[in-house]
UniProtKB/TrEMBL annotation:
GO terms for molecular function: galacturan 1,4-alpha-galacturonidase activity; polygalacturonase activity. One of its GO terms (biological process) is cell wall organization. Belongs to the glycosyl hydrolase 28 family. It catalyses: [(1->4)-alpha-D-galacturonosyl](n) + H2O = alpha-D-galacturonate + [(1->4)-alpha-D-galacturonosyl](n-1). The active site is at H288. It comes from Hordeum vulgare subsp. vulgare. This is Exopolygalacturonase. SUPFAM superfamilies: Pectin lyase-like (SSF51126). Residues 1-20 are annotated as: Disordered. The gene is LOC123402122. Its EC number is 3.2.1.67. It is found in: Secreted, Cell wall. May function in depolymerizing pectin during pollen development, germination, and tube growth. Acts as an exo-polygalacturonase. Keywords: Cell wall, Cell wall biogenesis/degradation, Glycosidase, Hydrolase, Secreted. It holds the Pfam family Glyco_hydro_28.
Amino acid sequence: MGPASPSTSPQLTTPDQTRSTNKMAMAMAGRSSSTAVAVAVAVYAVALLVSTAWAAATPAKPAAGGAPSMPAGPLDIVLLGAKGDGKTDATQTIMKAWKNACAATGTQKIIIPAGNFLVGALELSGPCTSSIIIRLDGNLLGTGDLNAYKKNWIEVMHVDNFSINGHGTIDGQGPLVWEKNQCNKNYNCKILPNSLVLDYVNNATIRGITLKNAKFFHLNLFNCKTVLVENVQITAPGDSPNTDGIHMGDSEDVTIKSTTIGVGDDCISIGPGTKHVKIHGSHCGPGHGISVGSLGRYKDEKDVEDIQVTNCTIKGATNGLRIKSYEDSKSALRATRFVYDDVRMDNVSFPIVIDQKYCPNNICAKASGASKVVVADIVFKNIVGTSATPEAVTLNCANNVPCQGVQLVNVNLKYTGTNNKTMAVCHNALGKSVNVVKELACL
């Protein structure tokens, strides 16, 4: 967490007081100098008394988004010395622009113009006394020197009213370091830097930009409230390791609209403690689909509630709509009130999956099978298209806490291969099937 930004000085006079003082001074213009001086002194004394009283009644730190003030320095990183040549380190110029914007009031806009700007770790910390917009029309290139990062690449922390928009790109240059990712061999591996991280950020908008080739996750939201991701492109090769498109945890009121994601891991990953998520009109593929979980890996995880995925397309992904929790879960939590409606699958390996016996890298080899994660009230409605494997529906629920309230409504998925028939594999799942093709109606 970075240091809090300095507060701006309190306003000494109101605009009306200033106008009154100016009028009185102008009225003295035609009088003798001695009289004018005497009156001016009296006017100043009165103004000082009034301004002192006003300052005492005015908070020392104005609320973010209040009356605008002039920042201490430029907000265009080129004016601060940045060079868009793809070679010169622009880290400090962006940090300086952030400091100038954060300490001002009103709405302040940081400008990253056209060009290629090489950037190391950025800790953009609040709280700020302004609302900040980053206008990204250039390309930010993440250095391949892993020693330049403490943890993440671009991290925005403890900020209210934050936006990043434009036509530029946040390019993690992941191909430079992906070979150093050992997470496919060791589940407790060292995590490479995430590209864009929002921690404890309220009222944020990310619009229009492209995130590309992250070293690890592209966009990570933690403990955020009221976030809109709209018209964003997220792209990485389908075989790139752990390059999730959007991950969120302990966050609330997240909306993802008209966004296209093709990566090497989950297109969208919804972690513990997340509530009120709406994903609409978006495209996923390649990748591992739109996932909830994994849940139950750590102690004290919180419930996941009210997830809506509507009018989306998933193409060429290994999974479609997936809920996964550990077989030997360490937390007691609920995953409940999910609605998946109007989702088209195009050659997706496993279109619908609930897996309460998730166990990557065989770390659960001695699992007791006694899950503590409850999965309930899950609706799959108007899910159509094609499956790349015969197993179009998989409901693999725990023996001790069966899935409850699962609904398959208007589900029509067909295996595109030969020699096998489309099927559903369902264990310990309770619910109902309505207008579902015969081979998938397992509830």
